[in-house]
Amino acid sequence: MMLEEGGFCVECRPSAFDGIERRRHKRFKVKDDALIFFEKETGTILDISQSGLSVHCTALGMPLLPNHLDIFFTHSRSYLPNIPVFVVGNVAVSPLPAFISFKRLGMKFGPLSNDQDSMIRNFLMMISKINKL
After folding, report:
1. For the whole prediction, is pTM greater than 0.90?
2. 52, 88 Cβ separation under 8 angstroms
3. CATH superfamily of domain region 12-132
4. Element (H, E) at 88
5. CB within 10 Å: which end of the chain, N or C, has fewer?
6. pLDDT tens digits for 32-46?
């Protein structure tokens, strides 16, 4: 699948986590259109590609890193349950006020079903069009 580049595409560059480029696909910034859920935690998707995503979530009560998560795309009202992921980056973020801890997690998708892969591809096409507006 070929995605058109928009003004909000995150170019492939060394990862902020360790300086090693792991991305095989261009990532597209996501506005406030997508949420993730795992265990009792909720977060927002910062950017996403065909092979992974970056999320921002609270670090409260997060003893383990997720290996599956649910994704909700608010714009299309699509829900993808039980998406397998591998955490490849884990960075503490300290916004103001500092009494709340946040994390930025870089995640690679695990093996996806055909339906899951198709829904992610559809979402990528949709946000590439929205970013062009």
Report:
1. no
2. yes
3. predicted glycosyltransferase like domains (2.40.10.220)
4. strand 78-93
5. C
6. 678 999 888 888 999
